[in-house]
Amino acid sequence: MPETGYDLNALKKRMDGAIAAFKHELSGLRTGRASANLLDPIMVQAYGQSMPITQVGTINVPEPRMVSVQVWDKSMVGAVERAIRESGLGLNPITDGTNLRIPLPELNEQRRKELVKIAHQYAEAARVAIRHVRRDGNEELKKAEKNGEIGKDDAHSLTEKVQKLTDEYIHTVESTLKTKEAEIMQV
Predict the structure, then answer these.
(1) Is 28:136 a contact under the CB 8 Å cutoff?
(2) E-strand stretches of the chain
(3) Quick check: pTM over 0.85?
(4) Is the Cβ–Cβ distance between 116 and 177 less than 8 Å?
(5) Which of 109, 135, 141, 162 is nearest to 5 (CA)?
(6) Cα 76 vs. chain centroid, distance in angstroms?
(7) For residue 181, what are the CA distances in angstroms to 4, 64, 68, 122?
(8) Tens digit of pLDDT for each residue in 31-85?
């Protein structure tokens, strides 16, 4: 690669970020199995402010269809229970002292299909983010070529590398989506 200051690793880092965000969003989607990440988006009103549930208790998955939250401060049990009920996830916690047990109901076919649609939306957002990184990289290359920092051949070669990188990351999104879709549809 020519010494132009053009860095493909910077593009890789940004694309890795898009993939990481996509995987994080998918981890919050409920499948047939319980996951500690299921409760990640829940915010609890605690000590006069809104904070993530992970900052008021420990989340465990003791059984495939059960999530438990061990609340650290006994006075926060009611607030945590309320936050889980009002989260829109359709969960009903059972309080047992400072421990909340949350059984996961079976997913019906319609709900599974809705979750797959949501997963596809997340995947499309990730693909768009990766394409934005590609666009930014290509614009940078055109600017460098116009300013005479790199030659036409080098610019063309680097543009092809950027496209190849983009294709690899899009493929990663597709394979991750396919895996998640199979996981969701598994009965």
Answers:
(1) no
(2) 43-46, 49-52, 57-63, 66-71, 94-96, 99-103
(3) no
(4) no
(5) 141
(6) 28
(7) 42, 18, 25, 12
(8) 666 777 778 778 888 888 888 888 889 988 888 888 899 999 888 888 999 988 8
